[in-house]
Structures
1.
Amino acid sequence: MKPNYYVAHPWHGLELGPKAPDELDVFIELTPQDTVKYEIDKASGFIRVDRPQKYSNRSPTLYGFIPRTFSGEASGKHCSEVVGRPDILGDGDPIDICVLSVNPITHGNMILTVIPIGGLRMIDKGEADDKIVAVLKGDEVFGQMKDISEVPKALINKLHHYFLTYKLDPNSPSTGTVEITEVYDRVEAIKVIQFGIEDYIKKFVTV
């Protein structure tokens, strides 16, 4: 294989992997140990400090995104149809992913091979902002799980609570703009990923 002498952009330059969407290579921005919120800088591909985590919330899992996906028209339309509300849009970002691993991985800015097992249908300010849940391939504890129904309820509750509260300021009343309408299974997660791939191709590939 010809070597790549340049660092690939994590969103546009990384491949999904030959078994996508059943098995994916994903990019991790944030770990449970991080006390600040890191996020990819879309223009450069470098990791940027988005904001300090001012309060007690930290991500319960590894957190990042699926390369070459985009939450756009098809993603928003699918969310609208499922929840029965018109005019939900995609949030304009790559599809987010939470990765379960029993072994502590202490820094982000890395690629992992994962297996999707479900997700959280999150809507933020009227935009689809799905959080796919996956297991690290080969993980001794989580790696054998095939569906989110096998994950301990307490861990799903932690994810649920994190995403509903991680933007809140205790000194300001919540405006209720973020909601999670359901926790869905692996079959639905694959659909969400496929719509994200479709939106990416339409946005960045199709001329």
2.
Amino acid sequence: MENQFDFIAIEGVIGVGKTSLAKLLSERHNARLVLEQFKDNPFLPKFYEDRERYAFPTQMAFLASRFQQQQDMLSKDLFQQMIISDYIFEKDRIFARLNLGDDELALYDSIFDIMTGISAKPDLVIYLQSSVDRLMHNIRQRDRDYERHISRSYLEELSEAYNHFFYHYNKSPLMIINTTEVDFVNNKKHLDYIDEQIFNQPIRSNTHIHIIPD
């Protein structure tokens, strides 16, 4: 089947493997890789240490960075290759609703509403789900310094917020993959299966597709 996508975005909770899958698929399909620039956010380590104090500056720094990347994607030359990203712009508000107070959220929303209207729209969104146990395992395995402060309760809140968001998501075709028992990094059969479903099966608008490889 001829490739039907110019822009694929992969989403999911911290530790679910969205960046890994984006990298693997971009290598297979010679796609331009656009990754979230979380390392450039100077407030992120402080946020995980003191969530209430640093939520707003962390959120605004992410909003500015993500919007700049969206503008770069919109200006993509027509002859450049497909784009695969490890986030969608709208995900920013999931974190804002979870972490900001009412006054902060109102200010944030006034800016977000302007930006989201002129952000890049994916041709397909892939939402990776996982159990909190698996997320905790993955985070411990990669052992990033600033992620050592992430609590199980925060991941539970975040997972619930993500599930709620994507249950109502209808801006792009949506594919849902439960990765709790899936290892597309080390198991080529799992990666092949996912690749087949994305690129060799018809994707219908506003359709939720659950994929659990054998």
3.
Amino acid sequence: MMNQKKIAGEKACEWIKDGMIVGLGTGSTVYYTIEKLGDMVAKGLQITGVATSEETAKQAEKLGIPLKSLNDVTEIDVTIDGADEIDADFQGIKGGGGALLREKMVANASLKNIWVVSEEKLVRNLGEFPLPLEVIPFGWKQIQRELEKDDIETNLRKQSSGEVYVTNNGNYILDIVNQTFTDTAMWQEKLAQIPGVVEHGLFLDYVDMIICGKANGEIELIKK
């Protein structure tokens, strides 16, 4: 079977031009984008990357892609990132890789956002994939209890070792499970009002184009 992630990730490089500032996402699909960009930089492409995670920064540096911090750029020409789910209205869930806060900040600074995915990420309704909340460690249990009052079930994310997962920003992640997110605007408002929730993984009205790799080797471009 064709590697859907690889073909989608590499296809996105066609939208990268000389002189661009490029947001570099995090995850298993955009990994291939960054690998391909590394080849293009080695052959003379001149770009500056803005990484959304320490993992992505390490990969880019190893490949010789020049990087700047988000503080050092005024805007980003295009960001290429993955997604965990996307519905028909171009609303998505991100944060499976734990980088949702930086990913959203970079997306917000970008003139164009392209998401690279394999076809199973396209869904009718959001929610089969857990919705991550980045929360400060102080009082995280209070946030969990607050959500439980509304029958919202969460799991504290842990590493395979059993240790609590800590984001690049020093925070924890609570994953909302067993929930369908049909009224995404309502959820966005609700979660934003809970003290201690730094960011949530609902990405509403960010993406401009989806590059979807299919099992048969075809690539579908889905534009708004």
